[in-house]
Automatic annotation (TrEMBL):
Fe cation 1 binds at residues 95, 125, 128, 213. Binds 2 iron ions per subunit. Coiled coil: none annotated. Its main location: mitochondrion. The gene is COQ7. This is 5-demethoxyubiquinone hydroxylase, mitochondrial. Pathway: Cofactor biosynthesis; ubiquinone biosynthesis. Component of a multi-subunit COQ enzyme complex, composed of at least COQ3, COQ4, COQ5, COQ6, COQ7 and COQ9. Interacts with ADCK4 and COQ6. Interacts with COQ9. CDD domains: DMQH (cd01042). Residues 22-44 are annotated as: Disordered. It catalyses: a 5-methoxy-2-methyl-3-(all-trans-polyprenyl)benzene-1,4-diol + AH2 + O2 = a 3-demethylubiquinol + A + H2O. GO terms for biological process: determination of adult lifespan; regulation of gene expression; regulation of reactive oxygen species metabolic process; ubiquinone biosynthetic process. It is an enzyme of class 1 (oxidoreductase). It comes from the Eukaryota.
């Protein structure tokens, strides 16, 4: 029985490769392609799509993988490429870092009474990251080289603030989300000055995410963030870190 199984397996593999497997299989060979037209490479995207890789690349920290074949590639002619690259790169890094912060908080407080609140905010951050993954492909923007660092730093900040207790975690949320909301407002002003019609889709995305980050900020205040010991010191320190992260992620 074992000897008989070998040829059958080889035959099956050959069928999958060429759709023919010798006499008696009932499978017809593929029709010849017209001369002068090379056969498509295995796994290639349809011609109307832009293929960037042979398969999905996992994002560090468990975020949504980058879409590798974009059906909505944005025409590059006429856009301010340096400005758009900077905006999308830093926003992707910010949402990536926010995901890692909430992951760290959930690792400590996931089973506490505030766990569902943190999870709800984290779910929105996952959606934000997924969207910026798509925008990076559509606008052909490379991610910051600092993602591995933000991967660790974000988780440490989230877990460290959660170790201060529920109020400490919420104080971290207030500080971070306030910084991100302010940063998004600056980007909105920049895009409006550039051309609000040309960047309409990007403006809509940033405005929506700005509003949701502001909601997270307000949730933190509702959960007694300001009652954290040394709240002002903690908030200032976190926001200084956010400003440094924004500055670096825009540029490298």
């Amino acid at each position: 029985m074992a000897a008989a199984a070998g040829p059958a397996v080889r035959c099956s593999l050959w069928q999958r490769r060429s759709l023919r497997c010798g006499p008696g299989t009932g499978s017809a060979p593929l029709p010849a392609r017209p001369s002068g037209r090379p056969a498509p490479r295995a796994g290639a995207c349809p011609s109307r799509h832009r293929c960037l890789s042979a398969g999905p690349r996992p994002v560090p920290g468990g975020g949504a993988p980058l879409r590798l074949c974009s059906t909505q590639a944005v025409p590059q002619a006429g856009i301010n490429k340096p400005v758009i690259d900077r905006i999308i790169r830093v926003d992707h890094a910010g949402e990536f870092g926010a995901n890692r912060i909430y992951a760290g908080q959930m690792a400590v407080l996931g089973r506490s009474s505030v766990g569902p609140v943190i999870q709800q905010m984290w779910n929105q951050e996952k959606d934000h990251l997924k969207k910026f993954n798509e925008l990076m492909v559509a606008y052909r923007v490379r991610p910051t080289v600092l993602l591995p660092f933000w991967n660790v730093a974000g988780f440490v900040l989230g877990a460290g603030s959660a170790l201060l207790g529920k109020k400490g975690a919420m104080a971290c949320t207030v500080a971070v989300e306030e910084s991100i909301s302010e940063h998004y407002n600056n980007q909105i002003r920049t895009l409006i000055e550039e051309d609000p019609e040309k960047y309409k889709e990007l403006l809509q995305v940033i405005k929506q995410f700005r509003d949701e980050e502001q909601e997270h900020h307000d949730i933190g205040l509702e959960h007694d963030a300001e009652a954290t010991p040394a709240y002002s010191v903690l908030k200032t320190a976190i926001q200084l870190g956010c400003k440094a992260a924004i500055f670096l992620s825009e540029r490298i």
